[in-house]
Amino acid sequence: MKVLGIETSCDETGIAVYCSERGLLAHQVYSQVDMHAEYGGTVPELASRDHIRKALPLIKKVLADAGVKKADIDGVAYTAGPGLIGALLVGATLGGSLAYGWNIPAIGIHHMEAHLLAPMLEEEVPQFPFIALLVSGGHTLLVQVDGVGQYHTLGESVDDAVGEAFDKTARMLGLGYPGGPALARLAPKGRANFYKFPRPMVNRPGLEFSFSGLKTHAINCWQASEQDEQAKADIAWAFQDAAVDTLVIKCRRALKQTGLNQLVVAGGVSANLELRQRLGKIMKENNGKVFFPRHEFCSDNGAMVAYAGYLRLQAGQYETLSINVKPRWNMAELSAI
Ligand code: KG4
Ligand code: ZN
Predict the structure, then answer these.
(1) How many whole angstroms from 190 Cα to the centroid of ligand 1?
(2) Is the domain covering 127-292 a CATH 3.40.50.720 domain?
(3) Nearest atom (ligand 1) to Cα of 180
(4) CATH classification code of 2-116+300-333
(5) Centroid of ligand 1 to alpha carbon of 162 (angstroms)
(6) Residue 80: what pLDDT?
(7) How far is the CA of 267 from the centre of ligand 2 (A)?
(8) What is the pLDDT of residues 247-289, one digit of tens each?
(9) Whole-angstrom distance, CA of residue 26 vs CA of residue 97
(10) Domains 2-116+300-333 and 127-292 alike in fold
(11) 163 lines ligand 1 (CB under 6 A)
């Protein structure tokens, strides 16, 4: 079975073809970041319009790269939510129309489920059940995964997502947009422990997160500093240390609470090297194993959507002809396969 995947939930147009026999055949991501950078954040209307311009040419390119014709495609998967409504509608309308025109089924995919399943595109994959830490620009979630579509939320952020906190702190330090990766690159130049940031919500039981306080702490440190390059790097170091430490503490707690020993980490922030190293270390110490997507599949892409779509289509799931998107969508509502 060959599935065309379409991701347009935010500011990346991601297209891929996944084949059940041969794996991922081709994929492409077009990032709108340069266009939004001028405004310091994603402008939803501009995002939708750019998806309209880019999606179809990218689909043609990916089909050519994959060496498949339209007639070879057995199903279309598109991101149906959560995300920006206009951007989602572009992918859903295009995906639904192509499927209708080609007389094949379409399936709407949950963006965070696609992130969660992205490590399954690698050679060594986790076995159910496992714990997933999903860390992106919009979500920070700890989930117990008993199977595809069997997701039990153990904890989530009560305010900013961790990626959002990275971006806001980076913006405040003048590191551009989206600043998460830039802040992570600057952090190693900072002096270790020059600033001490709090570890929000670790001293009370539970698996919830809060990241908006870290951002405020960063602002206060910056205002009281010399406001030079060294201060920027010192704050980047301390912010990343606190954010990563908080995620690691909660992962350990979730693993202990559930008795599970496999951890999947996915979403844009799973590209963070410090997070990857520290989680790798604790999982090794505890005879467990951690699974990450390859670097290019940490952030938004079509491959993860094509793969999630394949799993659901081969289980017989598909959409009706109506176009439905869900800007807000709880993972726990998904059906099991
Ligand atoms: O999953 P994603 O591409 O889009 C959403 O679904 O939100 O995640 C994007 C987020 C942004 O907040 C970005 O700053 C963050 O992931 N990010 C990072 C790193 N790379 C991307 N944050 C920290 N360290 C990184 N290396
Ligand atoms: Zn994402």
Answers:
(1) 21
(2) no
(3) 14
(4) 3.30.420.40
(5) 9
(6) 98
(7) 6
(8) 999 999 999 999 999 999 999 999 999 999 999 999 999 999 9
(9) 21
(10) yes
(11) yes
